[in-house]
Amino acid sequence: MRIDHEVHKWLSIGSSLQGSYVMRDKAQDKLENALVTDPLVRPYNKDGTLNTELGNNVYNLLLNYQPGVYENRDNNFKVYVNPYIEVKPIKGLSILSRAGIWLNYSNNYRFDGIGSVNYTYANSEIAKAKITQNRTYGYQWDNVLTYNFKLFDDHDFTFTGVSAWKYDHVQNTAMDQTNISSNNFKWHNMKGDANTTATSSYTMSKSLGFIGRINYSYLGKYLFSASIRRDGASALYKDNRWNNFPAASVAWRISDERFMESTQSWLDNLKLRLGWGVTGSARIKAYSSESSLEEINMSLGGLPLGSYRYSQFITNPGLGWEKSYNTNIGLDFSLFGNRIDVTMDYYITRTDGVIWSVLLPSIYGTYRPGANNYKTNMNLCETENRGFELTANTRNIITKDFSWTSALTFAANKEKIAKLTGGTANNIANIDPESGTNTGYTLIIGQPINSFYNYKLDGVWQIGEEKDAAVFGKRPGDLKVNVPNMKRISEGVYVKANNDGTETQYDTNSKYSYSANDYQVVGHNSPDWTMGFQNGFRYKDFDLSVYTFFRWGQTINYNMLGWYQPNYFATNAAPSRTFPTYFNYWTPTNPSNDFPVMNYTASSSTMTGFTGLNYVDGSFFKLKNITLGYTLPKTLSKKLSIDKFRVYGTVTNLLVVSKSHLLKDYDPEMNGSLQYPLTKQLVVGLNVTF
Fold first, then answer.
1. What distances in angstroms separate CA 680 from CA 36, 469, 555, one per listed residue?
2. Any idea what the Cα angle at residue 415 is, between residues 285 and 670, rounded to 5°?
3. What is the C-alpha separation between 418 and 323, in angstroms, rounded?
4. Which residues contact 344 (CB under 8 A, 6 or more apart)?
5. Could you tell me which of 630, 397, 652 has the C-alpha nearest to residue 548?
6. Which of 248-252, 393-397, 423-427, 480-484 has the lowest average pLDDT?
7. What are φ and ψ of residue 255, in 5° steps?
């Protein structure tokens, strides 16, 4: 809902309001267990009861569909209010004050009762319930002063001043109950006894920014803009919360020059742009820039004893803003009566002081017993991005009854880590600064941030390569691991270049042993380029939209590929895992390079290179969306006192074509995950405007 009201010519007020309430019940995410179930077992026993013995680590998901045994319910309430007031006291001067207020209350109720999937397999026949409540609210207050004036009709000036204040408040609570005696209780009977636990958290962050900007135009064809922004973020250490971010740009509307008059019959607009600016980020977990003491309990002689420890994030007083220095050159042009409209940009972005979380050495102690090291945030590295972006909109055919329009977006980007700072070593784990969890990527100089670091595979050793395979302690049918700086001299003889410039020879008498030092970059998750192409057609009152999408040059970590573990299939009567029929494994008569021989003595720990199986080229083309609609003619809708009446049908994810044959029957847009798969959908809808 939106309201705009002009009180006087110099005073306007208004507001917008958005609200939603969503409630949903979710099935348990165990898709991988359904995929690996032995196809020969029966889900039901002869007496009609559900069969719970489908194989090791394989769950019968039908258990959760029994009445009253399982529930996973979400409800979410959101409200956004955006009031504003605008005053125009004199010509050219505008003072706008605008606020944004948001409330977000969400609850999750989870019950794994007697007879459910988790009760049977994971929770040792213990019924559990959990209530999670999240309450988020905040506001943003912006004030914008704009003054526009002209000098001598040729010089146009616009001065802008902005203040921006933002406040975020988040509260989380969670309550857990175990040993629930009856499915009738669900989460409604938490007793507060020894089987009940409760946790809560609170985070608050603030930011404040001031912006000054000047825009200048001469004759409408020579354009200049400059700005300075000063921002402060409460999440950073107190001495480094403020920083400055300047920017400037120039543009030349070439098509308005006299020497371009001969092109006016076909060229509508030609504009050249050049810009430079600095942007900043302080994206870290709240309070992680300051250490605090936490009270814990420990046992001494069997008696509880109060103790204290530091929070997991150790203070880094030197932590500052992550700053990106952007240079951009762009070209805009329109042709043939604006039938073709194109925007092109080439940019170079150098980001200094990228913020990442790193694990501290064990000499600082551990946050919890075991491998739970303390962490700290660091301005860890410097990155460089070079890219090209293209947007094109065309009106191909425009007639009274039929029209055809197209929209193309293309983006190509090459990213690399230029430098790792702070004395850190190369090849370090990439830990997200907000969640503090390992992302699965590795930071490597010269490579993109989202790089995978593991064994690189060259397929499978084949018959005829026995002597070469023996150098590495392998034989035909085993995985062939690519070793960095290793060169084949002759059959059964290899030489590896060492870091000190020397070389070491390996043969069947002096074999090479694989180690983590043989890890290499096996790909990166960020695509080399993406492209979207949308075509819209209209014939009288019918409309058709077709959207296709490319994502190319990316690697994904596809969990299913790592399920190929031959010893499980050969030694277990009820297989712990099956695999798709298209998994083409090596045999003497089938020299496949996809998967090694099915050796019943081999396991994931003994097959060198096994962890490298997961990484696959995730490039794909997708027919993302097709929408067909019909709009009732205005002559008929007016008789029904309706402004617009449109019925439509939309099909999503209709077709997916993957570059790799190892992604058969899988949508790479899921990025390797098996949780809640993207599905083909048909949606029918109705738009009515009164």
1. 22, 45, 24
2. 65
3. 14
4. 330, 331, 332, 388, 389, 390, 391
5. 652
6. 423-427
7. -65, -15
List the structure tokens of 266.
């076909």
Can you tell me which residue has the tokens 């023996």? 470
For residue range 573-597, list pLDDT tens digits in order: 344 556 778 889 999 999 999 999 9
Please give the single-letter amino acid code of residue 241. R
- How high is the pLDDT of residue 580? 79
Beta bridge partners of 633: none
Decide if 287 contacts 266 (C-beta within 8 A). no
The number of residues in the chain equals 690
Q: What percent of the chain has pLDDT over 90?
A: 64
Instruction: Find, among 319, 243, 310, 323, the residue nearest to 285 by Cα.
Output: 319
pLDDT over threshold 70, residue 347: yes
Which 8-state DSSP code applies to residue 671?
T
- Rounded Cα gap, residues 662 and 424, in angstroms: 37
Can you give the pLDDT at residue 106?
95
| DSSP secondary structure letter of residue 570 | H
- Which residues in 61-97 are b (16+ Cβ under 10 Å) and which e? bebbeeeebbbbeeeeeeeeebebebbbeeeeebebe
- Mean pLDDT calculated for residue range 343-371: 83
Q: Which residue has the tokens 């690399």?
A: 416
What does DSSP assign to residue 517? G
305 burial class (0-12, 13-18, 19+ CB within 10 angstroms)? exposed
CA angle 319, 325, 327 (to 5 degrees): 175
Torsion from C-alpha of 334, 340, 343, 346, nearest 10 degrees: -110
DSSP β-bridge partners for residue 445: 417
Q: Are 392 and 407 in contact (CB under 8 A)?
A: yes
- Checking if the pLDDT of 572 tops 50, the result is no
Residue 660 has a pLDDT of 95
Instruction: Classify residue 616 by burial, with Cβ atoms within 10 Å: 0-12, 13-18, 19+.
Output: buried
Tokens of 440: 């699965």
Query: How far lies 381's CA from each of 147, 282, 327, 492, 494, in Å?
Result: 41, 15, 19, 42, 36
- Taking 70 as the threshold, does the pLDDT of residue 365 lie above it? yes
Mean pLDDT of all residues in 205-211 = 93
Structure token pair of residue 272: 């050249």
Provide the residue type at 396 as one letter. Answer: N
Regarding pTM above 0.90, the answer is: no
CA distance 318 to 378: 8
Do 173 and 199 meet the contact criterion of CB atoms below 8 Å apart? Answer: yes
Q: How far apart are CA 327 and CA 274, in angstroms?
A: 8
Instruction: Round to whole Å and give the CA distance between 73 and 24.
Output: 6
Cβ atoms of 598 and 589 within 8 Å: the answer is no
Whether 569 shows a pLDDT value over 60: the answer reads no
**By three-state DSSP, how is residue 255 classified?**
helix
The per-residue pLDDT for range 498-508, each reduced to its tens digit, is 988 899 999 99
What is the rounded (10 degree) CA torsion for 186, 188, 192, 198?
A: 80
Q: Which residues pair with 547 in a beta bridge?
A: 534, 625
pLDDT digits (tens, 9 = 90+) for 606-663: 889 998 999 999 999 999 999 999 999 888 878 777 888 899 999 999 999 999 999 9
Contact partners, residue 589, CB within 8 Å, separation at least 6: none
Residue 69 contacts residue 120 (beta carbons within 8 Å): no
Residue the block writes with tokens 């060169």: 487
Residue 90 pLDDT class (50, 70, 90 cuts) = very high
What pLDDT score does 574 carry? 43
Give the C-alpha separation, 512 to 425, whole Å.
Answer: 26
